[in-house]
Design a protein that fits this description.
Structural class: alpha+beta
Strand content: 15-25%
Helix content: 40-55%
Shape: flat
Number of helices: 14
Largest sheet: 5 strands, antiparallel
Radius of gyration: 35 Å
Number of strands: 13
């Protein structure tokens, strides 16, 4: 095999003209004969026993060429890519130019990793929010904690809006029970809107043990069998419950934390909220900087690269849906979009991701960034601690190469962020300018 020519094309594509010698092609033809002979019926010979020359004399010398080309082409292409030191993207388009006893010549056109010219990546500016935590923020978090620690308690009174009524119910259409209209010991929050409109309101005022018929008309956009129909639900109230939210005091602090006083719990919450917001502000700052870097590169990006990224994003999306118990075909029906339309919509974010990856790789090269074994090990320890897993399990399920890539990526972000300048967010700057103007007036 030899590379006759390697021509650079537009959009980071390369056209390789590859020649396979007569000797190499002869070896491939013989392999094709051995593979195909069992399927050929030659008079006077048992299946698979006819000599190659006999077969060729009957069907022509070219009878094995197509299969021989399929045999020889992959290895010839891979060797050509290796010899030319190409970093290919996607699969080649192959065109057979010549095929005969003297050998094979074919052209393979394939996208290659583009040359990237970095723009500015140091000394950039990006907005960064100033973190301020108010007493109202802490109180809101305390309220959330109290809600999570609430409990349902029975009350001996009539149903009110906001209560949870435990009910038995059965629906009848012209006196006949219909499918899906029956339930027992069902907890229904009154006012949640989870039942047919009008159902929950008619439970208000009912007491434990009371039974009642409720007249309901189903909405016109309901299931075809019941859409727009007037029906009757027979309902019995088994229990009335209300949510009991604990008082936010020292006893509450002892129950939900390691602190003995509400004051200490508030101080800890303020610290944690501050840390969370600082982390979020830093990440937003870094994201804005990296987007500027990605927007600033110059690269002739091949479409194949974007398509491959789009396909990866689609596969990840399908896996996320599956994890939620939603089959992709069901999602397609729910959204009314075809898979092709969803794939098309993913092309723009795929291009953005490709530009970001190219920018990161270019900075890695420019700064000669690497990750040591020790750094990879430490990152694995951090991951194990974060998810409450032992280190060996992390090593078993998380490839070291992925962790190494992440460590290097973090170094890229640090390189950009450490030299950057944080400026006030635009809305804050506008507010200050407005205040300054009002002061002058």
């Amino acid at each position: 095999m030899s590379v006759k020519s390697c021509e650079k094309l537009e959009k980071s594509k390369v056209a390789l003209t590859i020649e396979v010698s007569a000797e190499d092609f002869e070896v491939a033809i013989n392999k094709a004969y051995l593979k195909m002979r069992g399927k050929m019926n030659i008079p006077g010979f048992r299946p698979g026993k006819a000599p190659r020359k006999i077969v060729e004399s009957m069907y022509g010398a070219e009878v094995f060429y197509e299969e021989a080309v399929n045999i020889v082409l992959p290895d010839a292409y891979e060797k050509a890519v290796s010899d030319e030191k190409l970093e290919v993207v996607g699969y080649p388009e192959v065109e057979l130019e010549n095929c005969g006893k003297d050998g094979v010549t074919f052209k393979a056109t394939v996208a290659v990793y583009p040359e990237v010219k970095l723009g500015q990546y140091k000394g950039l500016e990006a907005p960064k929010a100033n973190v301020k935590v108010m007493a109202a923020d802490v109180n809101a978090r305390l309220k959330e904690m109290a809600e999570r620690n609430s409990r349902m308690v029975s009350v001996e009174r009539a149903v009110k809006k906001g209560d949870t009524a435990n009910i038995d119910f059965e629906g009848f259409d012209n006196g006949v029970a219909f499918d899906g209209g029956k339930g027992e010991n069902f907890d229904l929050e009154i006012g949640s809107g989870s039942f047919v409109p009008g159902f929950e309101d008619q439970l208000i005022g009912m007491k434990v043990g009371q039974e009642k018929d409720i007249d309901i008309t189903f909405p016109k956009d309901y299931t075809p069998e019941l859409a727009g129909k007037p029906v009757v639900f027979h309902v019995k109230v088994n229990e009335v419950k209300v949510k009991e939210v604990p008082a936010i005091d020292d006893e509450f602090a002892k129950d939900v934390s390691e602190f003995d006083t509400l004051k200490d719990l508030k101080a800890d919450l303020k610290k944690k909220i501050t840390e969370d917001r600082k982390t979020a502000a830093q990440h937003a700052f870094e994201d804005a900087l990296m987007q500027k870097v990605a927007d600033g590169i110059e690269a002739d990006i091949p479409e194949d690269m974007v398509v491959l990224q789009s396909q990866r994003m689609m596969e990840n999306f399908k896996q996320q849906l599956a994890a939620q118990g939603i089959p992709f075909d069901q999602y397609v029906k729910m959204t009314g979009m075809s898979e092709d339309a969803i794939q098309k919509e993913s092309m723009e974010p795929a291009l953005k991701q490709v530009r970001m990856d190219l920018a990161v790789a270019a900075i890695v090269k420019a700064e000669n960034l690497e990750a040591s074994d020790e750094e990879v090990e430490n990152e694995m320890k951090n991951i194990a601690e974060k998810y409450g897993m032992d280190l060996e399990s992390i090593k078993k399920y998380l490839p070291a190469s992925e962790v190494k890539e992440q460590v290097i990526r973090e170094k890229v972000i640090k390189t950009v962020a450490d030299s950057a300048v944080a400026v006030e967010p635009e809305e804050k700057a506008e507010e200050k300018a407005k205040e300054k103007k009002e002061d002058k007036e």
